[in-house]
Every structure is written in C-alpha cells, then in structure tokens.
Write a structure and sequence with these properties.
The complex is a heterodimer. By secondary structure, chain A is an alpha+beta fold. Helix content of chain A is 31%, strand content 24%. Chain A is globular and about 65 Å long. The chains are: A alpha+beta, B alpha+beta. Bound molecules: flavin-adenine dinucleotide and FE2/S2 (inorganic) cluster (2 copies). Chain A: InterPro entries: CO_DH_flav_C, CO_DH_flav_C_dom_sf, Diverse_Substr_Oxidored, FAD-bd_PCMH, FAD-bd_PCMH-like_sf, FAD-bd_PCMH_sub2, Mopterin_DH_FAD-bd.
Amino acid sequence: MEETIIAYRFDRLEETLSQLNKANCAIVAGGTDVMVMHKSRRGVPPKITKPIIFIDHLLELKQVNQNGNDLHIGACCTYSELLRDPLIPMPLKKAIKTIAAPAIRNRGTLGGNICNASPAGDTLPLLYVYNAKLLLRSVNGDRIVPICEFIQGVRRVQREPNEILTEIILPSVLEEGAHVVFEKVGNRNADAIAKVGFAGYIRTKGAVIEDVRFAFGAVGPTMIRSNEIEKKLLGKTIPVTDMDIAKVVAAFDKIIKPIDDQRSTAIYRKTVALNLLRYFLTNSTHIQHI
Amino acid sequence: MIKFNLNGRKIETDAPPTARLLDVIREDFTLIGTKEGCGEGECGACSVFVNNLLQNSCLIPIGSIDGAEVVTIEGIMESDQFKILDESYSEAGGVQCGYCIPGMVMASAALLSQNPHPSEDEIREGISGNLCRCTGYNMIVEAINMAAKKGDGLWKKQ
Ligand SMILES: Cc1cc2nc3c(=O)[nH]c(=O)nc-3n(C[C@H](O)[C@H](O)[C@H](O)COP(=O)(O)OP(=O)(O)OC[C@H]3O[C@@H](n4cnc5c(N)ncnc54)[C@H](O)[C@@H]3O)c2cc1C
Ligand code: FES
Ligand code: FES
C-alpha cells in the first residue's frame, strides 16, 4: 500500500507559519538540496517522512529592498533573481555565478543555501564577512540571529521547528571605503562544489584599517572566522606589512583544519586557503588606497 | 489533484506531490523526449521550461508547481526556433548518441531567448549544466553559434 504523502502549499506566509506551528513539517524551497538528499529509485518519489510544506512561491519571501544602510533579501529569492537585481552587491553576484549552472540557479534559493548549512555553501563565506543577520519568523513573532550563531555545524542550524527564515539582512553594505572580495577554488566552473571558498572585507579611513573580516569555506564543519585574528589588524595602516601578513596567516594556519575527501586533500585545501588570504592582504590593501 | 499546464494543455494528475516532474511527464504523459541521466541535477538531460525558465525536472516535486506552465522538448518542436536549432545541430555535427540532445536543445533555446548573440564563453556557460559524453562539446557550441546567426531576430521572447 502506498502511504499518503501530505504536502501543503499556501498562498500566504501567515497560513504557512500557522501550519508549521501545528505540525513539524519539512520545508522545501527550491528543493535542489532536499530532492537530492532524499532521492529514491528511478520513478519512485523521494522519501520524505514528515509532511512537506512548499514555500518557494511565497511572494512575501521574494522581495529585495534597501532600508537605510541595510539590504534585506527575501529568503526565497532564487539565484537567477538575485543576479538580475540591481541592489545585490557585486561580490555576492560573483559568488552566485560560481554556483552550479543556469537551471539550478533558476531554482536554488539563498535561504536554502543558508539553512542547508553545507560547509561548501558558496554564499556563506561572504554572508559571514557581511555580518549577515537572519530574520526568523514564527507565529510567535520575529527574531534576528547573526548567521555565525544560526549555523552550528554541518547541516545543523538553530531553527525552531515552527520558524521560517524570511530575510537575510546585510547591514551597512553601502559603507564607504569598504572593499569586499570573494574567491572560490573548485574543479571546473559549473557544478563544481567548492574545495575552498574565501571572502575578505576591509574598510579603511585614509590609510587606517577600521574594520577587517575574513571567512573561509569548505575547510571545516562551518565557515571559519576569527574576531581575535581580525583585531590584530585594526588601526594598522595600509599597505599591510609583510610581517603583519605573516602573523595573520600563521594565526589562521593554527585554526584551519580541513579534511581529506574525494574532492581534495587537507593539505591542498589549507595551502589554497592561506594563499587566498595572503593574496587578499597583499593586493586589496594596495588597490584600496589609490 | 495537482493541476498545471503542460505544453499548452491544462492537465491534472493524482500523482503524489513529491513525485518528480520528470516521472510525471515521462510516465503519466508519455512525453519521453525528456531524459533521465543522473537524477541529481548534474547532467541536464531532464531540462524543461517551468514558467519560461530552464529547470531540471528531476529536482522538481510536482506539488511545488501547481498552476505553472511546463514546456518540454515536444512542446517546442513546432517552433521556428526549434527548426533552426535542429538544422544547426545536424550541420555542426553536434549530435552523436543523442541522449543529451533534448536537454541541450532546451538549454540552447533558453540561452538564445535571453541572449540572442552570445559569445563563446556565454554559450559554454549556458550549457554548463548539460553533460554530453560523446561530442566533447565543441560541435555543440558551434551548433548554438550557428543557430544564433541563422535565427537572428527570431530569438527574442515573443
Ligand atoms: C547539481 C547541483 C549543483 C549545486 N552546486 C552548488 C554550488 O556550486 N554551490 C552551492 O553552494 N550549492 C550548490 N548546490 C546546492 C544547492 O543548490 C544550494 O544549496 C541551494 O541554495 C539550496 O536552495 P534550495 O532553495 O534549493 O533549498 P532546499 O533544497 O529547498 O532546502 C535546503 C534546506 O534548507 C531548508 N530551508 C530552505 N529554505 C528555508 C527557509 N526559508 N526557512 C527555513 N528552512 C529553509 C530546507 O528545509 C532544507 O533543509 C548544488 C545543488 C545541485 C543539485
Ligand atoms: S536527470 Fe536531471 S539533471 Fe540529470
Ligand atoms: S551526444 Fe551522446 S551524450 Fe551527447
């Protein structure tokens, strides 16, 4: 006997939230991770044990707007939609362009990349350096959590079963003097899962570093970022000296602990990660001040 | 009952909401031009248009596309654009075993309708989600290039 599969697709976010509050459901946005994860034999629908709730059509989750300095991105915006949106910062577009191929980008969502919490999620290093905040909504109201607290480990996020990630907030994306980069090293362009992802952020006033942030992807269970190491560079002037660069690189050398897997070796990953960091510190701090 | 539009016809199906669009179009509607390669979004053999966007039908639970417009390779075969692609693929020698071709043609049509004069890099990017085990891609790239030229003026969305 076939079991009946329960699936919901409401017109409004509100109804969706009240259903989520009644029963624990599997949220499906673009489904590009969910469908692969639950794949069955050919011709057999994927096995998802919980009732399913589709959210990718909800207009409330597809808006992008600038609110003062903050950019609010609806969790169910697809990658293709974000690539077309003039408000999305260039480095984020660059990261998105490295994701899969056009057909996947027409379905996969930014919210899905975050909630899936893969160590190789390509938007994550940048979202970490942007200090992204996540707006989670339930029938009980809203809460805002920094992305680094929300993502707790491989495929582990701090979401209550009745909550939906509704918005990704990038604070102060328009700050003057800020320079942001994203780099991904993978096998080939399309459909390549990152071997190493890197995002760097630097903001200077005159020649003085006011803020600097680094995040590494695919070299640990979650993104690697260290406020402590970043602090070492605050107040220094650019270009950063070779000695300071060496210190920062050595500090990350201690905390980056990648693994071997079928895509790459630990040693290779670490070398690439540290090279990307060194390159960023050498180059970005030069072009900064012209 | 899930309802959507398939190649211009209104259809209904009692397949479960998690059923893959790929299985529904192939098995319930015997539209077998759409192929299954990997079943995981990697190969593009299952490419269709959903609301005019290129998508992998192996990753789409039909419950998520209630009310949508789905177009398969069969749905574009009567169009002038298809005829030009068909000719160009044959002329350029872009078809060997043919398994990847329905998906390639869908990706080609999607690309050209957004970008009627693509550069070689843009062509490669446009078909980057479509794997071909036979041709080594160069002939396919050439076919798309040829179709862009032959069909000049035809590609913009009607
Ligand atoms: C062929 C292929 C290539 C890929 N290449 C890349 C790549 O290069 N880089 C990369 O980073 N990823 C890649 N991916 C992975 C995937 O496409 C992305 O992670 C995508 O962003 C997932 O979004 P989605 O909407 O499809 O998520 P879904 O599969 O719908 O959901 C993923 C998870 O997040 C949860 N979820 C989704 N949205 C919400 C929300 N708003 N609130 C609460 N929970 C939510 C779901 O319950 C599920 O657990 C690839 C996938 C495939 C199939
Ligand atoms: S069968 Fe869908 S992408 Fe390979
Ligand atoms: S022609 Fe054989 S797979 Fe492309």
